[in-house]
Each structure stands twice: as C-alpha cells, then as structure tokens.
Amino acid sequence: MSTTVPGSHNALLARFNLGGSGHTVAIKDCIDIQGMPTRGGSAALADAAPAAAHADVVRRLLNAGWQLTAKANMHELAYGMTGINDWTGTPVNPQDPARIPGGSSSGCAVAVGAGLVDVAIGSDTGGSIRLPAACCGVIGFKPTFGRVSRVGAYPQRSTLDCVGPFARSMDLIIDAMAAIAPGFDRAGASAAQPGARIRLVATNSDAAIVAAMRKAFDAAGWQGESVTLDGMQEAFDAGMVLINAETFAAFGHLTGRGKLGADIEKRLTLAGATTDAAVADAEKVRAMFTANVDAALRDADALLLPSLPQLPPTLESVRNGGSVLALSSLVRPFNLSGHPALSIPVPLAGATLRAGVQLVGRKGEDEKICALGLHLEQALKQAAI
Fold first, then answer.
1. What is the pTM assigned to this prediction?
2. Is 128 an annotated catalytic residue?
C-alpha cells in the first residue's frame, strides 16, 4: 500500500495513493490511517501495529473525494518546537534550509511549502501547526478546540490539541475545513471583510516583524487599535504545565527503554514530576486567560499579533544549545484558551523570508477567521501589484 520515501525534503515518511482524485493531502504521523502504523516520529513506536481504522479526519477527507498521498514527518511524539528528528530525518525548511522547520508538524509545513502536496493535516497542542507554518512561509490553521474531531489522533486525551490544515492559499484552507469540520459554512468563510474591526496585540517581538504586521493591517483596510492582552506569560506557563502532564500520561511508559531521542527522554522524564497542584493552578490560569481573550474580542472581529516573536533560528544554533522556548510564546496561550487561530505569511521588508501573523477569533467563529485570512491574503496580493 505504501512505500518509504528517502529524501523528499525529509518531509514525507511514506508515499501511497488512497481515495479519490481531489486535492492531494499528507497526514501527520500521529493521525491514524487504516492499515498503516502510526509511529509519532519515534523509534519507540517503530513496531506499532497497523491502525485498525481511519481517524475521523481521514475518513471525512476520503468521503469528500480527497487524495491521500503521504504520511508526514514530525517532531518526535509531537513534543517539541524545532522539528529536528534524528530518527526520521529533519524536514528541510523551504524558505531557508539553514533554519529549523518548526514543530511539531514539521513535515506538514515543509510538504506544503515545497509543493509536495496541496494540503497537509497536522495537529496543534502548543503551536504545532502555526509555528511551523510561520517558519516555512505557509498558512496554518488551529480551529476552535473541539471543532474538528480528534478521534484517531494522538495523544488520545488532550485538553489542548487541535487537528487542522496547512496550505499555500486560503481557498485550500477553506476547502479543507469544509471537508473535516461538519457544519462548516463555506459561504461564511469566504465572505468579504473590508470593514472588519481588528485589535493589534502589543508583543515583545522583533521590530521588523511588528512592522510587517502593521503594513499587512494597513493593506487590509481594517479598523482598530493596539491593545495589551493580559496574562499571556501566565497562559504560556500554564500551557506548558498541561502539555507536560498530558504528554507524560500518554507516553511516559516509553521512557527508560533507550529508544527515545535524548531530548525527549529527558523532557518526558521531567514531565512525570508534574503535580496535581500545578495542574489545578494551570486550570485557574486557563479560566482567567480565556476570559481575558473573550473580553478583548467582545467588540472586535479578531486579534492580530505575530505568530513568532522573531525569525526561526538556525539548525546550527539549536543543535549548539540555543533556547527555542520563546518561539511558542505567542501561539501556545491560545491552545490553553481554545480560541481559533490562523497563521498567515506576510512579506518582511528587506528579506526573502516571510513572517507569520496570527488572527485569533471568538470560539466557534472559525469561518470568520478564515474569511479574514482570505481578505488579508487578497489585500497583500493587490498591494504587491
């Protein structure tokens, strides 16, 4: 049914043909495809049995006539932000091969950015769709928590994780959401948004990225003002507590066997020390921060902020011990709160790289965020003419 794929930008683990003749799509290796093992990018799961059934998201794509063509590579156990994987190979960033592709849905972002597939389906627990999308110059969408079924996706139990699409255009993001999210309103997701009210969230991001965001905002013709969103750091910290607790609950049994990457072994072992009290405190922060985001959106259509506070670091700097924790500081909080969030690439003055900016909307209003992304995409194209 499948063949391994040496090379291929290391984005894809296997090539196959399953389904109809519609859009081509790659599926992250933590989402079940019937008859194929789901290995989570980890040698510790190398001997996993073939999946007995399709994940819900896979079944819906097949029912919509899509063409599944590949398994996408990933950061081991979806537990990292760099996308570096020494067992399956590290996907090559199509924007700049010297830089990290971002994780954990690294293969998805690279496969889309390199034109290997039309769309990829990944997962986002702490920025794992939006972060690699921003690194690789493509669009990535984290739906509202619970909007897209996670049945057949790993870890099986999560209060943070969302399944969502990558693509090179908003039309394809909308197509994907219409296929995988029951009840998704395609017309609403394509509605014009010329007079939208958008609040620009103040962040401690590189000046060039902030300038790119402001230029994109101006090109869109939107109205709004800058705001401070209280609790971002607390939400980031609480999100880390919960992802540690939930990842250990799912994969802690794999430690101590000598089959995990050294970094994952260390982090997962430490995660096992997460206390019930820390989890309870994190849940209090979740309630506080969710209320803050809801309040900021009460009289606005969306929040706008950078996806990453700076450009992705080089592979060399990360391998030499450079910290990447701050890379997810602007994306992880919205996993905690559960709001829909879209990362879309924008031009960066004086650079060939594109930066990612993030649109965050009210819970359940995934269509509105897609419509805003489509409007922004069209405005940027017109501004470039």
1. 0.97
2. yes
